[in-house]
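Note to self: keep these together.
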Amino acid sequence: MDKLFEYIAKEWSVVSQAPFAFLILAAIMFGLAYLAAKWRFTAVIDQTKVSNEALKDRLHLKSEQAESYKDRALKYDEKVQQVVDSDAVALKERTLEVVKNLREFIERHKREDDRMSAIERSAMRSAQTEEERNAAWERHTNETMRLSNERNAEYDRRFRVDAIMLRDELRSRLPDYEPLERHHDMMYEHPTNYFGFNDVASELERMAKMLTSVSN
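Structure:
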């Protein structure tokens, strides 16, 4: 500020000859400085508001997720309690119902796989060039991966929790039960293919039928 006054004092002779022009120029400069400062601070404030809104949205989402997890946990606890409290006949029926649905799931997806294989064979026979054969093979590969992902996702959504829960309860009531040598418990978590799905269904069915024979 002192330097500004010193500059004005030095140039006073020039300023005094055109005072109105100087005042207008000064007003314009101060106006531009004010607008620049206002724009800068407005941008900072707007950015802060946006950040705060984003933070509120994340907190709200976290709260909703926590409530969702809580509801799932309560439903799971209720389901476990129902299984634990069921008698041998009810547990067997519940298990065989899961087995039936799982085998229907397997057959439905097998039919879809067979349909895709037939389409792929037809496309390969119709292909006239190596480029067409490669394109047909790539389409088939992509479709196979898509179906596999959908199949595994459906198993996780519909069967995995119930299958593991029933397995553990059945084994707790069959202390002498021994899984077959070819069986692996990891199949309940990640069956990955039809061998795994069938393995889960077969073992659950075997234990369910053993349960009532032991009870009798």
